[in-house]
Amino acid sequence: MSNKVSIKDIAKIANVSIATVSNVINGTGRVSADTKNKVNKVIQELQFVPSASARSLKDKNSHLIAVVVPFVEKGILQDNPFYWELVRGVENGARNHEVQVILLGIDEHEDFSFVRGRHLDGLIVVGVYEQSPAYRKILSLGVPCVFLDSYLSDPALYQVDLDDEAGGYLGTKHLIGLGHRAIAVLTGRLEQGGVNYFRYQGYLRALRESGIPENPDLVLEIDSSIQGGYQAAQRLGHHKDGITGVFAFSDVSAMGLIRGMHDIGMRVPEDVSVVGFDDIFYTQYMIPSLTTIRQDIVSKGQAAVTMLLDQINGTATTSRRVTVPVSLIVRQSTNSFRKI
Amino acid sequence: MSNKVSIKDIAKIANVSIATVSNVINGTGRVSADTKNKVNKVIQELQFVPSASARSLKDKNSHLIAVVVPFVEKGILQDNPFYWELVRGVENGARNHEVQVILLGIDEHEDFSFVRGRHLDGLIVVGVYEQSPAYRKILSLGVPCVFLDSYLSDPALYQVDLDDEAGGYLGTKHLIGLGHRAIAVLTGRLEQGGVNYFRYQGYLRALRESGIPENPDLVLEIDSSIQGGYQAAQRLGHHKDGITGVFAFSDVSAMGLIRGMHDIGMRVPEDVSVVGFDDIFYTQYMIPSLTTIRQDIVSKGQAAVTMLLDQINGTATTSRRVTVPVSLIVRQSTNSFRKI
DNA sequence: CTGAAAGCGCTTACAG
DNA sequence: CTGAAAGCGCTTACAG
């Protein structure tokens, strides 16, 4: 019995036309107060809820957006609470605008056909690159998009990015300030123009500023995961260059790294200082707590929704590019070089 | 231009009726191979995708399900990677069945009206209780549901639960086996028939079995969060009963606890042994790594989807209640009592 | 201020 | 094997 009642039923009972019912519901047209009350009462009584499908069949918009998150394993979203926080932010931003959020984990075979099939109003896309197969497909959809952490060069695209270069700089500078000179980097895929690329640029700038020559041996391109970080510890531990500082470009990898260090008998921060990136919820509870680059992930998600809806509604007065600031949070995982 | 092409356009170009096009798309009716090919070719060329709204307007089903996750802060989903893993599992299960997943974070005011409005095929509901305001509302929707971690007594309900009692028992037994007798419990809301309730029952059973009298002072009902665990450490540290073992009913609270212990100078596991619950992705990378009760969260999510779709499609031969097993994972956070 | 009618893009009997 | 037609539940000009 639940879904049977339609605008027609309301019209019949309230003794008006369906057009009037529609007008009442949408606040469109001119309807007398009396009629309005009468109709609203019936709507109340029958607990009427308009059909979204019928609406979007007419309107062409669905009040549905999707968050697109890249895959790692076939069909499985990244094992990183970072994404959860981001998605939370999006969901939270959307609920204030009566829009629902579809969660879409993509792999390289995703064809996005359901985006058109469902008349999605827009997409929030996380972490694609210009070279990603998904990138062209998404653009060809002709649907409003906001890209998160994607660093696409096309200035026409709406993007919310982090000031990654500054993050890379700040973390490195911090280590240098503590006296470290052999500073390794744990980075995810180092693609031109990608997130990690900019963090790395910041790292290089800090080195340059302090006259420290860059050393390619110190750059470890790893899986940006907890396992990736763990494995990196082995490589760093036996490194010829006497590394005393490591900058991991994600907190999850930093966590793996610290554990890995611990297992080969290197102490953090006594032997090696470690800086992370993201400021995931657990960083301050780690032992040692993690010095890291903070970004406000939830509000980033919210910003993306706002931007997307502005774009959809044509109220896009905001600029097409928002860069979220970062800050350094100093905790216990970093220490002065050779301090005893 | 993207969304303009409809079944009508295909029909015109292919020189057939729209009914035939529809039959080709759905594999219904009888269509000659020739016609089929012709139509399919046109569909290919025009990149035609059927409109989901038009379909669900007829069919009454939308191929859309929602994952309903309880709020903590107003509109903000729980700060616990557990939910992320669960949602991942659901998303993953759904994508294999051409169903999309809407993410819905609810607070006590949620009225679920969009469930009917959108003709959602079903709901996967996480962690409600019989007393939850959401519970009655959801039932009155008359929509297929699968409840996760909800322990509802109505046998007609489809549920995927964990063997929490066994989990509580196993963890406690493990501590007792190591010689601990003053074993505290860190539990979230201890509602009759809720997740924590059963874990607690398991704890009591283990105590009873070993002739250890239960001590209400040792049961700390806390916020099941990392902060909650942290704060609990203060209380436990100065506890009069000389606690040597703690069983935290979630890994996040265990993490907070261990850090809290550390901060007041109690070593884990030397002074206190700690057991967690969930086996979140980071547990084995903690220092010390966490002894915990493992559940396969992702496959739990997948099981829920399967169950839901079986129910929707009327192929529900499976029983209405699935209980996922747990196991004890022994790591470094537990140690023999007074071992030196 | 109110209503009749067309049409959004499909599916589904029903003829032929 | 194929097509004409009705109808799902809305919204939107257009009359009146």
From TrEMBL, chains A, B:
Pfam families per the UniProt record, alphabetical: LacI, Peripla_BP_3
UniProt GO molecular function: DNA binding
InterPro entries: HTH_LacI, LacI/GalR-like_sensor, Lambda_DNA-bd_dom_sf, Peripla_BP_I
Record-given protein name: LacI family DNA-binding transcriptional regulator
Gene3D superfamilies documented for this protein: 3.40.50.2300, lambda repressor-like DNA-binding domains
Domain of life: Bacteria
CDD domains noted in UniProt: HTH_LacI, PBP1_LacI_sugar_binding-like
Sorted UniProt keywords: DNA-binding, Transcription, Transcription regulation
Organism the protein comes from: Paenibacillus haidiansis
Ranges for domain HTH lacI-type: 5-59
